[in-house]
Amino acid sequence: MSRPPAPIQIPILEKSKHWLVINKPSGVSVHNDPPDVRTLLKKQLTPGTYQDIHPVHRLDKETSGLLLVGLDAETAANLSGQFQEHKVEKTYYALLRGELPVSTDWQEWNTPISDKAEGRKNPQGLLKDRVEARTLYKVLEANKYFSFVEVRLITGRQHQIRKHSVLIRHAIVGDTRYGEPKYNERMANIYQTKRMFLHAARMTVMINGYKHSFEAPLPPEFKEALKG
């Protein structure tokens, strides 16, 4: 008889009485899709040590990395407000299909896009739905197969990095919504993972008047792909 799969453990990077920061695995939803972050943390955390579990910002199911969680309604509302007002510094790493010129200076993608999930045929969305979207990026490494980029969001539209990268014909490796299916299938077979190669790596946010900076290490799948 085969054993049941081991329960997913959410890595907790830092924790206080009122909030915690996790390194969300790729493939785990934030909420409303069990086993999601809220469901898993309720099993992990000691009962009575928190009022509730409130993820305070978006992070796609397919994306790994930093997620800030409020443990009471007041803290969650304060932190969520900072994200809505774009006061939080967020840095991502992504592996894009194909070769881009390596750059030491920040460059910008600023094509207007919708603020909702779209599809491969029209990543920008309908013209009437498009709003300002600004993404800063540096190409840290590149070869004829991949470009490894550091990304900072100025605005925070839904799927912003995913849309901007596919609009320049360099989709994120493993992006099944916007990328090319046969290519993603080939990469999944080569690297033995179906994950999307987008990772929320660093975050700086004000909590109770103090600046806090957090970092989630680069997943091993990225390092393996970058070996070539």
From TrEMBL:
One of its GO terms (biological process) is pseudouridine synthesis. Pfam families: PseudoU_synth_2. GO terms for molecular function: catalytic activity, acting on RNA; pseudouridine synthase activity; RNA binding. It comes from the Bacteria. SUPFAM superfamilies: Pseudouridine synthase. Residues 18-164 form the Pseudouridine synthase RsuA/RluA-like domain. PANTHER family: MITOCHONDRIAL RNA PSEUDOURIDINE SYNTHASE. This is Pseudouridine synthase Rlu family protein.
